[in-house]
Write a structure and sequence with these properties.
The structure is a single chain. With 494 residues, this protein is an alpha+beta fold. It has four domains: 2-107, 2-Layer Sandwich (Beta-Lactamase), CATH 3.30.450; 113-260, GAF domain (Beta-Lactamase); 268-323; 345-490, 2-Layer Sandwich (Heat Shock Protein 90), CATH 3.30.565.10. It contains 15 helices and 17 strands. The protein has helices spanning 2-7, 26-32, 36-39, 52-63, 109-127, 134-144, 172-175, 178-183, 188-197, 235-298, 306-337, 350-360, 362-368, 386-403, 458-468, and strands spanning 11-15, 21-24, 71-76, 82-92, 100-107, 152-158, 164-171, 201-203, 208-214, 222-228, 345-349, 372-375, 381-385, 409-415, 419-426, 472-478, 482-490. It has a five-stranded antiparallel sheet. Strands 7-6-10-9-8 form a five-stranded antiparallel sheet, with helices on both faces. It has a five-stranded mixed sheet with strand order 12-14-15-17-16, with helices on one face. Helix 6 (134-144) packs antiparallel against helix 10 (235-298). It starts with a helix and ends with a strand.
């Protein structure tokens, strides 16, 4: 019997009906923290005073011969930490005295932790994907672990400057001052290291905290922190936090994709609205012009004046050209999205192409009053797609005319042995600083509103073409002073 008690992995005690300890095996020592010599002959110390009456009644029932099921109790260890156990007690007859109670105690702490972890992850699987708003998802994430697994939870995201910033806080952090909360939480430097390394950090404490990376596909990285003063976190808590972070990352990615889909739908609707407006205007004008010319022919047998016919045909030519440009832009949009933007590089002189494009703009330049000045080397050789560079130059000079207010326009070529630089300057209305970051995006225009025609695809297509050639495009602008668009192109794509 003594050998069984010594080898048993289950905590076993033998108590008198008043709670005095008569047997206390090594497993009980390990579970509760009291040595055998400290408890033998004394009343059980692991039952709190508030639970003593209920525990005493349990012993009385066992001694009286009642068969009782396992009893779940919240006891306490020697260090005061709570301990959840399941107690199985039976009556043992003693020849030399009153009956005693033999108890076996099974630690439920790990089982309860496992159940709590499963509940938390199940709830996370239900709650996090329920919202398709990233901010709401982060709020749900911070609240999930409080108070069952943490006294406070924080979510950090890396901002545009590369610094970790707390964006959501739940629990004690939400009510305490930053100084008080920081004393029991990982420092900003630790959070930054976790984000950079992608490795979790654990401080066992107490107070105890842990920090795990929050991977956000397609978004800035972040971190998730738990803090508590009630117990020491361990590797299982880190595993739980990592599992929660993975579920959150998936939910955030779904929310991001949903928001992108909404933006795509809105963009498509805007494109259809703008394109229909831009196409309808020249069609209506063409229709009106045809009616006017037909009416002129019907009014008399004599031929219409040549000057009147010439003006009508010139207007119709400009309208059809405008439609062709819009259709080409829409086709390029489709090709780029489908990954079918093809380039056909060939040896050419970029300076000669600049002069050719400038000559085509002579009628528009004369009408606007703008003076176009070219500063070109004798030769600017390279290997590029001629048609696509024609498209780039045409767009940039056209924009300079559109927004230049009749002021001079300058086109300058310069370069080195490896690359060529093209600058197109105008003295026009300029671009507000807040519009510059989005200028090369789809459907963005230098001047918002309907004061200037266009669907906002030209500069986006220019950027796609230039980057496909291995180059780059940038803009410097000041409202009321003008804009300079600069294109850098390698002379030959390596």
């Amino acid at each position: 019997m003594e050998a069984i008690l010594q080898a048993s992995p289950v905590a076993i005690h033998l108590l008198e009906r008043d709670g005095t300890v008569r047997v206390w095996n090594p497993a009980a020592e390990r579970l509760f923290g009291w040595a055998r010599d400290e408890v033998l002959g004394h009343r059980v110390p692991w039952v709190a005073e508030s639970q003593w009456d209920a525990f005493r009644r349990h012993l009385e029932q066992v001694v009286q011969g009642e068969v009782l099921p396992g009893l779940e109790l919240e006891l306490q260890r020697r260090d005061g930490t709570p301990l959840h156990v399941e107690l199985w007690t039976s009556c043992v007859a003693v020849p030399t005295g009153p009956a005693q109670c033999l108890g076996m105690l099974v630690d439920l702490t790990e089982r309860r932790r496992s159940d709590a972890f499963r509940r938390l992850l199940f709830e996370a699987g239900e709650v996090l994907p329920a919202s398709l708003e990233p901010d709401a998802t982060l709020e749900h994430l911070a609240r999930l672990a409080v108070p069952a697994h943490a006294e406070s939870c924080r979510v950090y995201l890396e901002d545009t400057d590369g610094r970790a910033r707390c964006v959501v806080s739940s629990g004690l952090d939400a009510r305490a001052s930053r100084l008080d909360a920081q004393a029991h939480a990982p420092s900003d430097a630790v959070v930054a290291d976790v984000i950079t390394s992608g490795e979790a950090v654990l401080h066992a404490g107490p107070p105890s905290w842990l920090c795990v990376p929050l991977g956000r596909r397609g978004q800035p990285p972040g971190a998730l922190t738990f803090t508590t003063s009630e117990r020491a976190y361990d590797a299982r808590d880190v595993a739980l936090a990592n599992a929660l972070a993975r579920r959150a990352a998936l939910a955030l990615d779904n929310a991001r994709r949903y928001q992108e889909a909404l933006r795509t739908i809105r963009t498509r609707e805007e494109l259809l609205a703008i394109a229909s407006h831009e196409l309808r205007s020249p069609v209506s004008a063409l229709h009106l012009q045809v009616q006017n010319l037909r009416a002129l022919l019907d009014r008399g047998p004599d031929a219409p004046p040549r000057e009147r016919l010439q003006r009508g045909l010139d207007l119709m030519g400009r309208l059809t050209k405008r439609q062709a440009h819009l259709i080409d832009a829409l086709l390029d949009l489709s090709r780029i999205h489908a990954g079918r933007l093809e380039l056909n590089p060939e040896p050419m002189d970029l300076g000669a192409l600049v002069r050719e494009v400038a000559e085509r703009f002579e009628p528009e330049l004369a009408g606007s009053g703008s003076l176009l000045t070219l500063t070109l080397p004798s030769e600017t050789p390279g290997r590029w797609d001629r048609l696509r560079l024609d498209q780039v130059l045409t767009n940039l000079v056209s924009n300079a005319l559109k927004y230049g207010r009749g002021n001079p326009i300058q086109v300058e070529l310069s370069g080195t042995d490896a690359q060529v630089r093209l600058d197109v300057r105008d003295g026009g209305i300029g671009i507000a600083p807040e519009h510059l970051p989005q200028l090369f995006h789809r459907f963005e225009r230098a001047a918002p509103g309907r004061a200037f025609e266009g669907v906002g695809l030209g500069l986006w297509i220019v950027r796609q073409v230039v980057e496909a050639m291995g180059g780059s495009i940038s803009v410097h602008s000041e409202p009321g002073v003008g804009s300079t668009f600069s294109v850098l192109l390698p002379r030959q794509r390596g």
